[in-house]
Amino acid sequence: MELLLMIHTLKLSSARRVIAVIPHYGYARQDRKHSSRVPISASAVARMITEMGVNGVMTMDLHCGQIQGFFHGCPVSDLNPTSEFAEYALTKNFDPSNLVVVAPDAGAVTRARRMGDRIGASRIVTILKRRVVANQVESMQLVGEVVGCVCVIVDDMIDTAGTLCKAAEVLKEYGAKEVHAWATHGIFTDPACERLTNCDALTEVVVTDSIPQETSQTRCKKLKVITISKLLAEAIYRLHTEESLALVGKLGPDKREKNLLKDLQPLDNLVEEEDDDWPQGHEDPNAN
């Protein structure tokens, strides 16, 4: 509601263009009718945003790419944080020959392949799962070899963490050396933090700051948060300068910062110097 009111205010203020930057698009998982008499919330929210007259939407790692079609007549930029996770992977000094990227389900294979190519993983494996109801999985089966490997589970979000913890345990049972989990959005609905803390199979959980994580970090010591601020800044800069967003996240960090800073002016240049000759008031020409 606050976003809608801000868009409405900017339109009433004669803004030339209004772009809604939504790092985490709520209701993204409700993109279809799973049963009768339920709303398609992702479509309803998109319709409200477009009806307010927004000129564009920028978001991060949508749960389903087809959600972009809900914004009728409005361009949607779905950014990918793979570059930020790749930079973090460099700090971990993983051995590429011993690194495996895990897709937690069949729908995440494309995301896992993209991450694997970026960090130089040796192969991609998939977990096939049978879900009984939402957030509850009956069985899991691993497709691929992980014996003695460092596994990285890649997903778009972590909610209650039940499926994630079970996947980590399955990987350990198949002989994985370490299991890490990387996700763009950390929702952490209770009892997610408790489950992650008690899951011995998980070594570390990494999420972005698309959602504030201060509370979750105090409750779960395994949680690591990386920032997407530079990625969003680069995308906003390219959008403002009418450049293509295709290269967002594909440039190195040094070149990215150089492009962002090249048009910035020093603060001193933006402050007007005081002029002693400037008249302090209007004199009355008829005054004696």
Give the termini separation. 61 Å
Q: Sketch the topology as an H/E string, one letter per element.
A: HEHEEHEHEEEHEHEHEHHH
Mean pLDDT: 86
CATH class of the largest domain: Alpha Beta
EC number: 2.7.6.1
Biased composition (Basic and acidic residues): 279-288
Pfam families: Pribosyl_synth, Pribosyltran_N
GO molecular function, one term: kinase activity
List the helices and strands and how they pair.
Elements lengths: L1 H11 L6 E4 L18 H11 L4 E5 L15 E4 L2 H11 L6 E5 L5 H11 L3 E11 L2 E8 L6 E9 L3 H12 L4 E9 L5 H7 L5 E5 L5 H6 L3 E4 L2 H12 L12 H9 L5 H4 L18
Parallel strand pairs: 1-2, 2-3, 4-5, 4-7, 7-8, 8-9, 9-10
Antiparallel strand pairs: 5-6
Explain what the structure shows.
This protein has 288 residues and is an alpha/beta fold. It folds into two domains: 1-79, Rossmann fold, CATH 3.40.50.2020; 81-226, Rossmann fold (3-Layer(aba) Sandwich). It has ten helices and ten strands. The strands form two sheets. Strands 6-5-4-7-8-9-10 form a seven-stranded mixed beta sheet, with helices on both faces. Strands 1-2-3 form a three-stranded parallel beta sheet, with helices on one face. Helix 3 packs across helix 4 (109-119) and helix 8 (229-240) packs across helix 9 (253-261). The longest helix has 12 residues, at 162-173. The chain starts with a helix and ends in an 18-residue tail after the last helix. It catalyses: D-ribose 5-phosphate + ATP = 5-phospho-alpha-D-ribose 1-diphosphate + AMP + H(+). InterPro entries: Pribosyltran_N, PRTase-like, PRTase_dom, Rib-P_diPkinase. Residues 279-288 have a biased composition (Basic and acidic residues). It is an enzyme of class 2 (transferase). GO terms for molecular function: ATP binding; kinase activity; magnesium ion binding; ribose phosphate diphosphokinase activity.
